[in-house]
């Protein structure tokens, strides 16, 4: 059947109301999906030039058919690049168009993942408003496209910068809209009771599918009978547009949509990163002449649309509080090493800024440059569109290294900033006879006891060959210590919030260093295997007993007792509280690695590798996914001293040629540092790797899970908008479990993605669809390559990811957040010059 015949037979009922469609014209910013990042930057600079020419021609009357043209700059990043490249005349013309309302600024910088911390979010959201103020304007609205959620602190950050409205253009490919309904407004309430007006909108190119742009007739969300091309003859295009617009509005009426107007976003070309198009306003005017008595279309701005919305009774809008987890935030685990570098850079920049609170060393331009690199990595586009189907493609390779380059550049700049601050404050460079003097600064907002590593250079330990004392300079106290090797000394130090002290290494007097002899009560054999309990555990002698007892089947400190078998760590007992910290009945032990793969029928066929992923929907795995858990194959004591002991537990696991946990158990407090080191095989099929985290604070019926996000803690499955993702979320510093008596804190400095929902394939549920007393599971989602378009195809390589587990008494929520952040914001240690040098 021809398109003409399809049009004649198409059912296109007239809507019952008189409608207004508000068309918001923009270009979706995807940094790398359709071309090289620098090429896309060039495009967006020119898009603003094109939009400015159209708007100026309409304003001057040279093109009266373009009257009413509006262009929304989806991201301020594009404006920033334009202003850098523009001549003074262009900059002036752009400002005038913004002041007239022909061109509009959005309050968002880029379409971001949930990687940015509170500091970075605030900086990014300040940029558009600062520019607007410089030209005598104000930004009141922001839009995002292609991302399906934000942390709760996102709303705070927008409101903090006087941005009152957010237009969210969702994308339901492997994602879903919140509230169970799109094209719906609501109030998003912050923790302190302020409210952001949100429009929970349609796909960012729904206007193209409805036919508002000649030559860009899309077919993505609307899957009707018309087998058209993007470019069709005018009569056919207009006929399809008429049918689709009428059907769309009639469907809204049938779904009890309450308004007689609706917004639609559209691009000037049928692609992401598309240009502005003057034919849209021409087509709209022609439509209004023919159909305007029933359906009027008006090109508007974000601010203009929200002004129209505010004419309605907004007091009746629903009010929702909580997190809005982004379905697309899982991209961060498709390049796990790059993300690890990003997170370290973001923390390092925070340290540099905290050490220089008066900004006496760091220039604002240096911070801005670092934040720009961080933002470009945290932007939502993870690679070229064919990265899975043809991972060898030149653009796939180019875009991957550019994405990594943003993380690497952020790291370089952040460390350079930190080094600059430390040098200005007295850190020592290399020169002969440097004093063994170290400055240690606690940047946390609470008292912290921390193991401090004092690093020496290779030629230096000879001067300390008789032994060394670690002395706190201000008190004269000799601190306990443990040497890792001749170049590294570890001591333990307690500092108050924001406190700084100095440590000295003082050589022992000759003859004071003592050797060790054999023990007569510790049941360890000549083979150095310790696989039975001492009969006289309290005995002490010349050799003494280390405070941490290590065996082949477990370990015990004064605070915790861990036990394992071949299936993993099955007990994590809190001796202080006399309670088990692992949930009973969990199929996996603490930090057990779990591997999933969904194999195509032919793992060498690119089309099958692609199509297997395309069918996964929101499961992130296939119906026939193969799942396996690591099995312990060996245990080795690495070291055991007065401050801590380290044990290596090696696992065998499909998909990984090597996996080992290194547990560093502290002797003087309830803390275990965990390092997961592994070598991931290179596999083209879709995979996932998790670590099981089956912890509890003790009372499994009454404990609550908390996740640290920008702006504060949230409770997964509780503090969320209705209809949002239950399965996973991106966290900042880590997670914690707390009941009335105690808390367990788990810091996750390297891997931000946490899986809450079941690993099994099945119907995915949304918030409010779970049972009221149901609790999230907890897994660290280390890596994934399931996406069929722009994820990295292979996860192969060497990795090491750190975690820190600690137990504390129950804390108020703000103190719990501070404790969690302090777990992996260790002291800043630097070797110092002598005073006055």
Structure write-up:
This protein has 837 residues and is α+β, with helices and mostly antiparallel strands. Helix content is 26%, strand content 26%. The chain has 15 helices and 38 strands. The strands form 8 sheets. The protein has a 9-stranded antiparallel beta sheet with strand order 25-26-27-28-37-34-33-30-31, with helices on one face. The chain has a 6-stranded antiparallel beta sheet with strand order 24-23-29-36-35-32, with no helix packed on it. It starts with a helix and ends in a 6-residue tail after the last strand.
What brief labels describe this structure?
15 helices; 837 residues; alpha+beta; 38 strands; 9-stranded antiparallel sheet
Topology of helices and strands:
Blueprint (H helix, E strand, L loop, with lengths): L2 H7 L9 E7 L11 H24 L10 E3 L2 H10 L2 H13 L2 E3 L12 H17 L6 E5 L6 H9 L4 E5 L14 E6 L5 E7 L4 H5 L23 H21 L6 E6 L11 H14 L3 E5 L2 H8 L9 E3 L14 H20 L8 H15 L15 H31 L12 E5 L6 E8 L12 E5 L5 E2 L1 E5 L2 E8 L4 E8 L41 E2 L3 E3 L3 E6 L2 E7 L4 E2 L12 E5 L8 H9 L11 E4 L1 E10 L3 E10 L2 E11 L4 E10 L6 E6 L11 E6 L2 E3 L13 E3 L3 E5 L3 E6 L5 E3 L23 E6 L12 E13 L3 H11 L4 E4 L6
Parallel strand pairs: 1-8, 1-9, 2-3, 4-5, 5-7, 6-10
Antiparallel strand pairs: 6-7, 11-17, 11-38, 12-16, 13-14, 13-17, 15-16, 18-19, 19-20, 20-21, 21-22, 23-24, 23-29, 25-26, 26-27, 27-28, 28-37, 29-36, 30-31, 30-33, 32-35, 33-34, 34-37, 35-36
């Amino acid at each position: 059947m021809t398109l003409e015949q399809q049009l004649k037979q198409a059912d296109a009922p007239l809507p019952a109301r008189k409608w207004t469609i508000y068309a918001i014209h923009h270009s979706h910013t995807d940094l790398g999906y359709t071309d090289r990042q620098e090429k896309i930057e060039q495009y967006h600079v020119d898009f603003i030039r094109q939009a400015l020419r159209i708007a100026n021609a309409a304003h001057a009357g040279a093109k009266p058919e373009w009257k009413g043209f509006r262009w929304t700059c989806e991201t301020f990043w594009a404006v920033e690049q334009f202003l850098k490249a523009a001549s003074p005349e262009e900059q002036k013309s752009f400002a005038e168009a913004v002041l007239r309302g022909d061109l509009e600024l959005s309050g968002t910088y880029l379409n971001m993942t949930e990687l940015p911390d509170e500091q970075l979010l605030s900086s990014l959201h300040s940029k558009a408003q600062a520019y607007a103020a410089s030209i005598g304007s104000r930004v009141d609205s922001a839009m995002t496209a292609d991302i399906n959620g934000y942390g709760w602190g996102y709303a705070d950050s927008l409101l903090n910068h006087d941005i009152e409205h957010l237009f969210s253009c969702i994308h339901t490919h492997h994602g879903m809209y919140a509230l169970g309904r799109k094209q719906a407004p609501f109030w998003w309430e912050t923790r302190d009771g302020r409210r952001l007006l949100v429009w929970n909108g349609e796909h960012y190119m729904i206007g193209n599918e409805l036919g508002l742009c000649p030559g860009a007739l899309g077919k993505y969300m609307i899957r009707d009978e018309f087998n058209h091309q993007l470019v069709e003859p005018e009569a056919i295009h207009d006929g399809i547009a008429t049918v689709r617009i009428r059907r769309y509005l009639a469907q809204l009426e049938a779904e009890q949509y309450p308004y007689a107007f609706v917004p639609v976003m559209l691009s000037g070309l049928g692609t992401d990163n598309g240009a502005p198009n003057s034919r849209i306003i021409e087509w709209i005017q022609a439509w209004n002449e023919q159909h305007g008595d029933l359906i009027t279309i008006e090109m508007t701005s974000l601010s203009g649309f929200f002004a129209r919305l505010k004419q309605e009774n907004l007091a009746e809008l629903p009010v929702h509080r909580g997190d809005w987890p982004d379905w697309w935030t899982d991209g961060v685990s498709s390049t796990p090493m790059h993300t690890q570098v990003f997170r370290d850079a973001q923390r390092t920049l925070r340290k540099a800024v905290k050490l220089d609170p008066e900004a006496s060393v760091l220039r604002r331009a240096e911070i801005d440059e670092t934040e720009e690199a961080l933002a470009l990595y945290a932007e939502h586009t993870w690679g070229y569109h064919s990265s899975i189907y043809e991972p060898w493609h030149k653009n796939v390779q180019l875009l991957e290294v550019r994405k990594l380059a943003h993380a690497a550049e952020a790291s370089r700049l952040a460390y350079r900033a930190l080094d600059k601050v430390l040098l200005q404050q007295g850190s020592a460079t290399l020169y002969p006879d440097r004093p063994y003097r170290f400055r240690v600064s606690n940047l946390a907002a609470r008292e912290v006891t921390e193991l401090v590593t004092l690093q020496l250079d290779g030629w230096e330990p000879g001067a300390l060959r008789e032994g060394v004392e670690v002395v706190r300079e201000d008190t004269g106290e000799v601190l306990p210590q443990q040497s890792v090797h001749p170049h590294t000394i570890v001591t333990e130090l307690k500092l108050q919030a924001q406190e700084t002290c100095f440590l000295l290494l003082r050589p022992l007097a000759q003859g004071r260093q003592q050797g060790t002899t054999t023990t007569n009560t510790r049941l360890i054999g000549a083979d150095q295997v310790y696989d039975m309990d001492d009969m006289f555990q309290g005995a002490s002698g010349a050799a003494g007993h280390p405070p941490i007892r290590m065996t082949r089947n477990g370990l015990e400190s004064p605070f915790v007792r861990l036990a394992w078998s071949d299936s993993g760590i099955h007990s994590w007992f809190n001796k202080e509280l006399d309670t088990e910290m692992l949930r009973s009945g969990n199929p996996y032990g603490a930090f057990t690695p779990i591997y999933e793969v969904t194999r195509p029928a032919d793992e060498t066929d690119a089309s099958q590798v692609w199509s297997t992923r395309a069918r996964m929907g929101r499961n992130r795995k296939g119906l026939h996914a193969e799942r396996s858990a690591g099995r312990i194959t060996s245990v080795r004591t690495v070291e055991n001293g007065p401050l801590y002991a380290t044990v290596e537990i090696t696992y065998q696991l499909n998909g990984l040629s090597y996996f080992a946990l290194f547990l560093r158990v502290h002797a003087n407090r309830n803390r275990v540092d965990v390092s997961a080191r592994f070598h991931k095989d290179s596999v083209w099929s879709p995979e996932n790797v998790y670590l099981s985290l089956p912890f509890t604070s003790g009372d499994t019926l009454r404990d609550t899970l908390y996740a640290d996000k920008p702006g504060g803690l949230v409770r997964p499955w509780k503090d969320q908008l209705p209809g949002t993702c239950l399965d996973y979320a991106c966290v900042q510093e880590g997670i914690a479990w707390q009941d009335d008596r105690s808390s367990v804190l788990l810091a996750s400095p390297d891997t931000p993605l946490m899986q809450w929902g079941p690993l099994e394939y099945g119907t995915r549920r949304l918030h409010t669809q779970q049972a009221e007393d149901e609790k999230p599971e907890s897994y660290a989602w280390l890596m994934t390559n399931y996406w069929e378009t722009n994820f990295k195809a292979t996860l192969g390589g060497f990795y090491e990811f750190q975690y820190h587990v600690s137990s504390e008494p129950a804390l108020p929520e703000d103190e719990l957040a501070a404790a969690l952040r302090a777990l992996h914001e260790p002291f800043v240690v630097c070797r110092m010059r002598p005073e006055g040098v």
